[in-house]
Design goal:
The structure holds 2 protein chains of 2 kinds. Chain A has 8 helices and 20 strands. By secondary structure, chain A is an alpha+beta fold. Chain A is elongated, with a radius of gyration of 24 Å. The longest helix of chain B is centred in the N-terminal third of the chain and has 35 residues. Classes of the chains: A alpha+beta, B mainly alpha. Bound molecules: adenosine-5'-diphosphate and magnesium ion. The site of adenosine-5'-diphosphate (ADP) has 10 residues of chain A, from helix 1.
């Protein structure tokens, strides 16, 4: 078990830096998710921590020891790949124990540990099979067993669930989180799926173009996004944005007028801003209520327990989520309001949140 | 067009040519092998299986069979060992694409040489008085080595030429195969703390088992056709130290006795033995490469 420290990490391919001066501290036992759009440098960052990619500049330490120049096998990390990366010609048992055999662990000890992880991951009946004869989910379990058996200081996951179907993804996600709850090994998990990140993380490190845009608990990231980019990236359905300005203690955008809770925002009268309204933080209200937004229903998406209403407000779509959607039909007038504590305001020029 | 008819139609031209060339000459050889024809004499009679029975009592025939077998083993194993070692070496040490391509190009050159040319080059290199190799050996303080005239060295010396041509060629193929391997299992092995040679021994080469077996089969078939190389370099000598079956068949059928029928019987026997052997190897290799 160990904390991880990355300081001043730079990675360039040719002249163009992919990661540019990134600093990150991950405490012991934490489950951290690197989240961000594809191509933002998550895998590169993870692979540098694993030692599969050299850093152009900066230092990485694991458990207090500087590992920047250590061979991947000497860093005490185990990694699970998106492609499973199993040794195709070896049986499941050989795949799992390959690392221990390289480390010269005695046979009986290997057998004992193999039995243990195989039981934990439900792999006992297939220890003699070859990876080819297994489903994607089973192969990824083998890859997890191969990582676990080494009892590493750090687990690294690079989009391990992206090749699986939705149901299996959810199941394995739960298993990975349970595994962490019992083993408490420091874990970095890379994904581009914000829902996956929200559900599994202790802390999310949200990356954009090779830099950290914001880090924090899932709640912090969801409720207090530091920038418009974060607000837009997190949450499904995604946030509604409206260009507006601050006028007499309220945020105004067309017919939308939302009074500002005193002291919540650091904004000036007349400031050009962008409002962010989370669909899940809005609810139907009676017309004419305080802060009500009125529009015309243009689409209803039934999601089972709730429905997403897309309404036309001032000639543009605005969506919100409600349980009370069954009486509505397309073309109906509808009024809804944002719960007052959940307004987001971003500076139009910098994209930074105006939260005080 | 149905699938079956398509297969038949596309195979037909090749099968026709094969039938005309191979079947006719094979049938001719079988026909000859049942007589006692000799070059230079028009008289002959049918002798049934006499030629075959005589073969079974011919010590020189069994010597040739043994030499052929040893030749197959040395050249196939040598080619693959050289190719695997060199390919791994190039793969691990030469990272620049330009250098790699230059090396591959250089390694391709020997196999592009006509075999007779390669044979003459090496005969010169091996020459006890003029050869480069003997000059090096001489500098090292050892007496001149009769690479081709020493019965215990001759076969290996000829095999070196064959391995020089094909081992380097297969090296190029393996370097390219190693380049196209998926990176992930190799990286997983690095994280499992495998050394470079262990990664190759336990991960990459086993993943290339199928191609390696195919290369071995190709080389085994190719090695059967080394008549020109051996003929130019040693002519089967010294004595019968490098006399493979095809050389012996040539010697007894054309060169010395002109005993065409006897040579035909030998060729037919060679055909049967190789067909059976390769069928068995082919079956087994399909099982291994799985
Ligand atoms: N080997 C490489 N050579 C050149 N550019 C690369 C290489 N690997 C990654 N990149 C670039 O680095 C950026 C980050 O890649 P990556 O870390 O894989 O992103 P992510 O995992 O977040 O999708 C991408 O723009 C990608 O094009
Ligand atoms: Mg990635």
């Amino acid at each position: 078990m160990a904390h991880i420290e990355c300081s001043g990490i730079v990675k360039s391919y040719g002249a163009h830096p992919v990661i540019d001066g990134l600093n990150l501290m991950i405490p012991d036992h934490e489950f951290v998710v690197f989240l961000g759009p594809s191509g933002c440098g998550k895998s590169t960052m993870l692979r540098m921590i694993a030692g599969l990619e050299e850093v152009t500049a900066g230092r990485i330490s694991i458990g207090g020891a500087d590992v920047t120049n250590r061979h991947p096998g000497q860093r005490g990390v185990a990694m699970v790949f998106q492609s499973y990366a199993l040794y195709p010609h070896m049986t499941v048992a050989d795949n799992i124990t390959f690392g221990l055999r390289r480390a010269g662990v005695p046979g009986p000890e290997i057998d004992r540990r193999l039995g243990e992880v195989a039981r934990m991951l439900g792999l006992e009946p297939m220890l003699n099979r070859k990876p080819k004869a297994m489903s994607g989910g089973q192969q990824q379990r083998v890859a997890m067993a191969r990582a676990m058996i080494k009892t590493p200081k750090v687990f690294l996951f690079d989009e391990p669930l992206s090749n699986l179907d939705a149901k299996l993804r959810e199941k394995l996600r739960t298993e990975i989180r349970k595994m962490h709850n019992s083993l408490k090994t420091t874990t970095i998990f890379v994904t581009h799926d914000q829902l996956e990140a929200m559900t599994i993380a202790d802390r999310i490190v949200l990356m954009r173009a090779g830099a950290i845009e914001q880090q924090g608990t899932p709640d912090e990231i969801f409720d207090r996004p530091a920038t418009r980019f974060v607000a837009d990236f997190i949450g499904s359905p995604s946030m509604n944005f409206r260009l507006g300005r601050i006028e007499r203690g309220a945020a105004v955008a067309g017919s939308v007028r939302i009074p500002l809770p005193p002291g919540r925002f650091a904004v000036a009268e007349g400031q050009e801003v962008e409002l962010g309204l989370r669909p899940t933080r809005m609810e139907r209200v009676s017309p004419g209520a305080e802060g009500a937004i009125t529009g015309r229903v243009s689409l209803i998406e039934n999601m089972g327990a709730e429905g997403q209403i897309i309404a036309e407000v001032d000639g543009a779509d605005m969506s919100f989520v409600t349980r009370d959607f069954r009486g509505l039909s397309i073309g109906d007038p509808v009024s809804f309001a944002l719960s007052p504590d959940h307004l987001h305001i971003f500076d139009r020029a910098t994209g930074r949140s105006c939260l005080a | 067009m149905t699938r079956q008819r398509f297969i038949l139609l596309t195979l037909a031209p090749a099968l026709t040519v094969l039938g005309l060339l191979a079947a006719v000459s094979t049938a001719g050889a079988v026909w000859f092998s049942l007589m006692n024809r000799v070059l230079g004499s028009p008289d002959y009679e049918f002798v049934g299986l006499y030629n075959y029975l005589r073969l079974l009592r011919d010590k020189r025939f069994f010597n040739a069979l043994e030499i052929s077998l040893i030749w197959e083993l040395i050249t196939v194993a040598g080619t693959l060992v050289v190719a695997v070692l060199l390919a791994v070496l190039v793969h691990e040490t030469v990272k620049r694409a330009l250098w790699r391509n230059l090396i591959c190009f250089a390694f391709l050159a020997p196999v592009l040489l006509p075999r007779v040319a390669a044979a003459f080059i090496w005969r010169f290199l091996y020459s006890p008085s003029l050869g480069l190799l003997n000059w090096i050996v001489g500098e090292a303080g050892l007496g001149p080595v009769e690479f081709l005239a020493n019965p215990s060295l001759a076969l290996v010396s000829v095999a070196v030429v064959d391995i020089w041509q094909w081992g380097l060629f297969f090296t190029v193929i393996l370097v390219k195969l190693l380049e196209t391997m998926p990176r992930d299992p190799i990286e997983a092995a690095m994280l499992d703390n495998a050394r470079t040679w262990q990664i190759h021994a336990y991960v990459t080469l086993p993943m290339l088992k199928g191609p390696l077996i195919s290369l071995a089969l190709v080389k085994a078939v190719e090695s059967l056709r080394s008549f020109d190389l051996i003929f130019v370099m040693t002519g089967g000598g010294p004595g019968t130290a490098t006399e493979t079956l095809d050389l012996y068949a040539y010697q007894s059928g054309i060169n010395l006795g002109g005993r065409v029928s006897y040579a035909s019987a030998m060729s037919i026997l060679l055909l049967i033995v190789t067909t059976v052997a390769f069928t068995l190897i082919w079956r087994a290799s399909r099982k291994w490469s799985r």
